[in-house]
Design brief:
The structure holds two protein chains of two kinds. Chain A is about 75% helix and about 5% strand. By secondary structure, chain A is mostly helical. Chain A has a domain of about 230 residues. In chain A, strand 3 and strand 4 form a beta hairpin. Chain B has a six-stranded mixed β-sheet, with helices on both faces. Chain B has a six-stranded mixed β-sheet with strand order 16-19-20-13-21-22, sandwiched between helices. Chain B has a four-stranded antiparallel β-sheet with strand order 2-1-4-5, with helices on one face. The longest helix of chain B is centred in the middle third of the chain and has 16 residues. Chain B folds into two domains: about 180 residues, Rossmann fold; about 260 residues, Rossmann fold (3-Layer(aba) Sandwich). In chain B, a hairpin with a 5-residue loop joins strand 11 and strand 12. Classes of the chains: A mainly alpha, B alpha/beta.
């Protein structure tokens, strides 16, 4: 009798626990989105100008820049790597593109200067950024250098090149000259389609593309597998080195794109463009629920993470919070997000264990 | 000399007295009961065997006893006094040590540092006394009859050697109760013998052993008491001399053990795989594989038996393309295999199911389906995208064919029991449509039911004219399943037996060629 009662109790507990677990896991999974809504609501109330069209437009442009970097970063982090060089590649590409517009390609041997067409400049810049990523990936895979170190090296080198290009000076007024056929660069930053800035379109399109790549292509599966267990991926026939080189190249490509967008928005390129942007990008990825250990995460999460960072940044500025406090708050948010991430991981482990026990 | 000698408590009074009692232990995980009101007695100076299928709750129970996790409810008494160990360290201080199933060792540290981790022997000035640690480690390892250099990095040892180190680590703790969770799963027959000798010695000193294993034949050799768990409940507790193997298996699974391994006689076809002069140098001199040549026919299950480090894993890894430094030639159906990468070998029709599931096979962060399809993704493409319908169909077919027990294909692979995880790994190999399946210890550490199912899968493959290379350290298994058995020792093939010829004695004798004092341990002296 007593035993029967206790069995019933256990069963009842079982049912109740499952529903509570479900709710908890739903809240944890959607936490980034919930955080975004809460932060947005808070700022709408606290800062009256926050929800104005003008502010939303400016904020979206900021978010787009971080999101584009974070998309590339997500690929890298999903493989268990890290790319510290993105901010520097932004600066390097901006300076190279600025130089190509204002000074062209000087060929002293022939005494001529070639002014490439704007499209050509954009293409060359994107290729340059991609190759910088490829080089990092090659160093990482070929010489077995830790990603942290290889991309730290690239961080210094690319920033150095950005400074070297014009001895530390800015390239101003990047409008080109009609007679050289290199005008129109500013359209990339200022242009709109359906009333929405190009950079925001790029963010939307690239997020979708990256999402499909991660979820629906063999390449994406390989990325997740490498981050989850590199040995298993290798023994399953995944070309680990090639895949890694590709993810760093993608990150370089995204950085180059951001370099072009910023230079175009400012109609100038400065050697310090993109300084410390890698940190915002990593923060967005982590806030979006991607594990720094690799193998777990999503592009959608990263996009939300970028929004949280962007809303937080601009909202705090609008509220007049001191820049020192802004840093303290941002730092705390990132760490708390990772703590919650760990809580979720532990919970999923428990759920997994529970399913295992149920299956026997 | 040191305060921590590998000698054990010198209690002479060995009786059947109960040293440890677990009372009404219940462990509830969210939504499930892993242990349901289990009471368990551990007897001093005896080997207390704990058996049950995967998921029966054995590991949960011993983890509670070893302080890894507290129970939801229930009490533990040591010598009649209630204890509540909250960490493995606390448990060790109470005299309860454990050899873990998933090895708890640090790859990046030396053998001796691992053995004394968190129990370092220090000198008066607070620094680690390397000399006394090393001499204690040497003593322990020689007691285990292992020729392991205590200064070697753990990561450089083979799995079996690592397991020996794990055992040495537990022995160094000088405990009264020693829990061994599948200590023999990576050991060869000879090493198991050594371990059993050590266990008998511990028994004689009054140490209580709690012993978990899936190898039932081991218990009859060393067990004294047996406790059987099924689905989180205790179903039986007996003195071992009163019961037989059949009784144990029936209580564990409720099935007849005679049907454990299936093998059907069938015709062998043409020569499918031919390997010639496979050679793999060992870093630091000598050979891991020393000029190996053999043939495999269609529909043949070719077993490879040998001691730990004999080169069996190296051989299948070479065939799978995972050892770039290997030399030699391979033919499939008379065509030379030119591909040298893993990916290329998989396309040629050679695929490996690795020995170490956690380390080399599964991607723990991903789902059952993603794990299963990882090696064959190009088969599910429509254009450049994966077609979910094709993926789903392939997954479902394998789940049915291989009797994989999952709630759904998208649950994390870590939610499955070891046996079911292993079947997912086998499915991953099969989905590459291999000509030859290379199975390295495919049943290591999985329960009886899953073992039987894997043997059935191997049979079915042979019937479909696949070639199967089966590396196993379990004599019963390899004898039951192989059409032909090659025995390896020190990188060479030292014996070949047909299914009819092979006996345990012959295999063990062939596996020892090149070892032992008669040969001076010279591995170049084994040519005939």
């Amino acid at each position: 009798m007593a035993q029967e009662a206790s069995t019933k109790q256990v069963q009842a507990k079982k049912r109740r626990n499952i529903t509570r677990t479900d709710v908890q896991s739903f809240l944890l999974r959607g936490r980034a989105f919930i955080a975004l809504i809460l932060v947005t609501l808070a700022f709408s109330i606290l800062a009256p100008q926050f929800m104005t069209t003008a502010n939303i437009v400016i904020m979206s442009k900021h978010i787009a820049i971080n999101a584009l970097l974070a998309i590339g970063m997500t690929f890298v982090i999903l493989t268990g790597g890290i790319d510290l060089s993105v901010g520097s590649i932004v600066g390097m590409v901006a300076m190279i593109a600025g130089g190509l517009i204002n000074e062209g390609i000087i060929m002293p041997r022939f005494g001529i200067i070639i002014y490439p067409h704007t499209w050509m400049i954009i293409a060359l810049s994107l290729i340059l950024g991609t190759l910088a990523g490829t080089l990092s990936g090659y160093v990482i895979t070929r010489f077995n250098v830790a990603p942290f170190i290889a991309t730290l090296g690239m961080l210094y080198a690319a920033r150095g090149i950005a400074g070297l290009r014009n001895n530390g000076y800015t390239f101003p007024n990047l409008v080109g000259r009609p007679e050289y056929g290199n005008t129109g660069f500013e359209i990339l930053g200022a242009g709109n389609f359906l009333g929405v800035n190009y950079s925001i379109w790029l963010m939307i399109i690239l997020t979708l593309l990256a999402h499909v790549m991660t979820k629906r292509t063999p390449f994406g599966r390989h990325v997740y597998a490498i981050g989850g267990n590199e040995n298993a991926a290798e023994l399953s026939g995944v070309r680990v080195s090639r895949t890694k080189i590709i993810v760093y190249s993608i990150s370089g490509l995204c950085s180059a794109l951001v370099g072009l967008i910023i230079a175009s928005q400012l109609v100038a390129s400065h050697p310090l463009t993109g300084d410390t942007f890698e940190l915002n990008a990593i923060a967005a990825v982590v806030l979006g629920g991607t594990s720094l250990a690799g193998g777990r995460g999503s592009m959608g999460g990263t996009l939300i993470g970028a929004f949280v960072i962007g809303v937080l940044n601009d909202g705090l500025v609008m509220m007049g919070v001191s820049s020192f406090w802004q840093k303290v708050i941002k730092g705390s948010v990132i760490v708390v997000a990772v703590i919650i991430d760990q809580v979720q991981a532990r919970m999923q482990e428990r759920i997994a264990l529970q399913q295992q026990q149920e299956l026997g | 000399m040191s305060n921590l000698s590998p000698d054990f408590n010198t209690e002479t009074d060995v009786s059947d007295s109960i040293i440890l009692t677990a009372e009404n232990i219940t462990q509830v995980y969210p939504g499930t009961v892993a242990l349901d009101d289990v009471s368990y007695n551990v007897r001093k100076g005896k080997v207390n065997v704990l058996i049950g299928e995967n998921g029966a709750g054995k590991s949960t129970l011993v983890k509670i006893l070893a302080g890894v996790q507290p129970p939801t409810s229930g009490k533990i008494f040591l010598d009649g006094i209630e204890i509540r160990p909250r960490s493995p360290l606390e448990a060790t201080r109470l005299g309860i040590g454990m050899v873990f199933q998933e090895m708890n060792l640090c790859d990046n540290m030396s053998v001796v540092d691992n053995i004394f981790l968190a129990r370092e022997i220090t000198r008066r000035d607070g620094l680690i006394s390397r000399r006394s640690q090393r001499s204690s480690a040497n003593e322990l390892l020689s007691k285990l009859e292992q020729n392991i250099d205590p200064d070697e990095l753990l990561g450089n040892l083979r799995i079996g050697e690592q397991q020996i180190v794990e055992i040495a680590k537990a022995l160094a703790q000088d405990v009264r109760i020693l829990i061994m969770d599948e200590p023999t799963s990576a050991l060869s027959a000879a090493e198991v013998d050594v371990l059993f000798r050590v266990i008998r010695e511990l028994k004689a000193r009054g140490v209580a052993i709690i012993y978990i294993s899936h190898k039932l034949e081991e218990f009859t050799e060393i067990g004294d008491y047996v406790t059987i768990l099924r689905d989180g409940r205790k179903v039986a507790e007996e003195e071992l001399k009163n019961v037989g193997m059949t009784w144990m298996i029936k209580n564990m699974v409720g099935r007849n053990p005679a049907t454990l391994y299936t093998r059907q006689e069938h015709q062998l076809g043409d020569v499918l795989l031919k390997a010639e002069n496979l050679t793999l140098p060992r870093t630091g001199g000598g050979y891991l594989l020393d000029d190996i040549s053999f043939e495999l026919r269609e529909g043949e299950v070719l077993g490879f038996y040998g001691l730990m480090g004999a080169g069996r894993s190296d051989l299948v890894e070479c065939l799978a393309g995972a050892r770039p430094h290997a030399t030699g030639s391979i033919w499939l159906y008379g065509e030379p295999v030119t591909a040298s990468t893993i990916e290329g070998r998989i396309q040629s029709g050679l695929v490996l199911v690795p020995e170490h599931r956690q380390r080399d096979s599964i991607v723990p962060t991903r789902s059952v389906q993603e794990n299963m399809l990882l090696a064959s993704l190009r088969r599910y493409l429509r254009g450049v995208f994966l077609a979910p319908a094709k993926e789903r169909a392939a997954t479902d077919r394998q789940i049915d064919n291989l009797f994989i027990r999952v709630a759904n294909a998208h649950q994390p692979i870590t939610a499955l029991s070891g046996g079911n995880q292993q079947k997912v790994v086998v499915a991953k190999g099969l989905l590459t449509q291999p000509k030859v399946l290379l199975l390295d210890e495919p049943t290591r550490g999985i329960d009886v039911g899953a073992k039987s199912e894997i043997s059935e899968i191997i049979n079915r493959l042979a019937e479909q004219n696949h070639g199967v290379i089966l590396v196993s350290s379990e004599l019963k298994e390899i004898l039951a399943m192989s059409d032909r058995i090659l025995v390896m020792s020190k990188g060479k093939i030292t014996g070949e037996f047909t299914h009819q010829e092979a006996t345990e004695e012959k295999l063990v004798a062939a596996s020892a060629i090149g070892h032992g004092p008669s040969n001076g341990g010279n591995h170049h002296g084994s040519g005939s």
